[in-house]
Amino acid sequence: MKLLLIEDEKDLREPLASYLKSQGYSVDTAADGREGHYRGMEYNYDVAVVDIGLPIMDGIEIITQWRRSDRNFPILILTARGNWQDKVSGLGAGGDDYLVKPFHNEELNARLQALTRRACGHAKAEIETGPYQLDTLQKRLNLHHQMVELTQFEYNLVQYLILHTDKVVSKTELTEHLYEQDFDKDSNVIEVLIGRIRKKVDPTGQYKPIITQRGQGYLWRTQYA
Amino acid sequence: MKLLLIEDEKDLREPLASYLKSQGYSVDTAADGREGHYRGMEYNYDVAVVDIGLPIMDGIEIITQWRRSDRNFPILILTARGNWQDKVSGLGAGGDDYLVKPFHNEELNARLQALTRRACGHAKAEIETGPYQLDTLQKRLNLHHQMVELTQFEYNLVQYLILHTDKVVSKTELTEHLYEQDFDKDSNVIEVLIGRIRKKVDPTGQYKPIITQRGQGYLWRTQYA
DNA sequence: GCTATGGTTCAGATAAGTTTGAGTATAGTG
DNA sequence: CACTATACTCAAACTTATCTGAACCATAGC
After folding, report:
1. Rounded to whole angstroms, how far apart are CA atoms A135 and A142?
2. Tens digit of pLDDT for each residue in B119-131?
3. What single-letter DSSP state applies at residue B169?
4. What are residue B50's DSSP bridge partners?
5. What is the pLDDT of residues B8-22, one digit of tens each?
6. Residues of B in contact with A215 (CB under 8 A)
7. Which residues does chain B have within 8 Å of residue A168's beta carbon, measured at their own beta carbons?
8. Which residues in chain B touch residue A214, judged by CB atoms under 8 angstroms apart?
9. Please, is A100 exposed, middle or buried when counting C-beta atoms within 10 Å of its C-beta (0-12, 13-18, 19+)?
10. At CB < 8 Å, which residues of chain A contact B?
11. Alpha carbon separation from A136 to A8, A36, A127, A141, A193 (Å, rounded)
12. pLDDT tens track of chain A, all 225 residues?
């Protein structure tokens, strides 16, 4: 999941960024409003975390502009304690959720999870496709309610596929959403990953949940268990 | 779908061309206005992407001339950020849509899809003919809402036929729209393709959606489900 | 500093998709 | 009805994307 964090205070931004990375997000950061706005216009994120009080360009302004240009990833707003007007105008401008500073990383994480899930049209934290259950809270995939051993990376890839069930996801899209911006274009990591995941996720080879669409990408197909 | 891309900046033109090819377009490129104009006069494209700021001959000029000569394929205009006058005069000259640089490939793609569809008189992304549904967004053909397994190439051919339902499409027209300019004239690829497609699309042999007009070409006939 | 784990790269193998060409069928024409 | 031109079919050849196993590298924990 690709995440954009716009926050001017270095002491908050950096630890937060590394926390989010540890939680499996691929994080881009921006320290001021202009840069943040630019990033959001330029790249496709799965979710953005935007502080309201920002130098150069205000958080509300950023969100307004994004929404006006049809950038429609979910946005979580950070506000200082007590500025409840900010929160209201932030949601009004097109924010999807807010969190008052100071906050616990875990809470932020939980809300982000919910946001990214809902953005793909899933209300519940547990998503069922055929014999599989994706538990987005615990970041686990189960097969017949038996936990499948996946590394975090592998899990992220699987989650992305499952959240986009029945849509063809190109390798480019996958690399873009799983890695930081620059990444060697002609590498076959994704292929290798997919190969390993297939073996782990479907050891008996009877479900074949990941379909290859030659020349286009991969798709997690609806399973009829 | 045959597409003409007129763009002088090599660093934009080449990656864009290869992206569009990966999306199933057959792309011709031109690096300056004169060449672009010539191409558009000479060949039949399904859609053109024209940068406004071009050496030798301006984009507006190209469009004006084309339209004056009744070249009526849809045109998408590329403008530099902020030059909204360009966009206005471009649309005035006969452009059908515009996109401000920099843009996301995906957005361009989506707009092109919409343009080519509308040019054939279809407003919606999903086109229904008898028992078949053509999903131009996902590039899939369904029969009774069951996905028909087609390769990208096969899909392109089917889409072309369906978009021109009830019109006879000659083999030459097909090769011209599916392949880059030069292609071995006396080849029977299309026949072979058609044969394969027929089997996949109508396995029971009861619908016969593709009719052969001997000596003229093929046509997808209106289906009465 | 060593070891284990997870991630990446490379190169050869495999499989999917496309094209070719020869042979067969069919429609249209005289 | 036979002849010709066009269309269809099949399998083999070719091309290219994807898969796979082994080696390699980075990092974290000990």
Report:
1. 8
2. 888 878 889 999 9
3. B
4. B6, B77
5. 999 899 889 988 988
6. 22, 151-152
7. 138
8. 151-152
9. middle
10. 42, 44, 167-168, 214-216
11. 30, 28, 8, 8, 20
12. 889 999 999 888 988 888 888 888 888 899 999 999 999 988 889 999 999 988 889 999 999 999 888 788 999 999 887 677 777 788 888 888 888 888 888 889 888 988 888 888 887 888 899 899 998 888 899 999 999 999 989 999 999 999 999 889 999 889 988 887 667 667 899 999 999 999 999 988 889 999 999 989 999 988 765
Taking the CA atoms of A108, A110, A115 and A116 in sequence, report the sign of the dihedral they define.
Answer: positive
pLDDT digits 0-9 by tens, B100-112: 888 888 889 888 9
Q: Does B104 contact A167 at a Cβ distance shorter than 8 Å?
A: no
Contact indicator for B65, B74 with CB cutoff of 8 Å: no
Residue with smallest Cα–C1' gap to C26: B214
Residues 6+ apart with CB under 8 A from B160: B1, B169, B174, B177, B178
Is pLDDT of B179 > 70?
yes
Separation of A188 CA and C12 C1' (Å): 15
d(CA B156, C1' D15) / Å: 20
Could you tell me the two tokens for A155? Answer: 């899990």
Q: Provide, in whole angstroms, the distance separating residue A75's CA from nucleotide C29's C1'.
A: 72
Q: Nearest-CA neighbor of A68 among A40, A43, A89? A: A40
Of all nucleotides, the one whose C1′ comes closest to residue A196's CA is D20
Distances in Å between the alpha carbon of B59 and those of A177, B34, B66, B93?
35, 10, 11, 10
Task: Mark residues 124-153 of chain A whose C-beta is closer than 7 A to nucleic acid strand C.
Answer: 151-153
Q: For strand C, is any atom closer than 7 Å to the CB of B91?
A: no
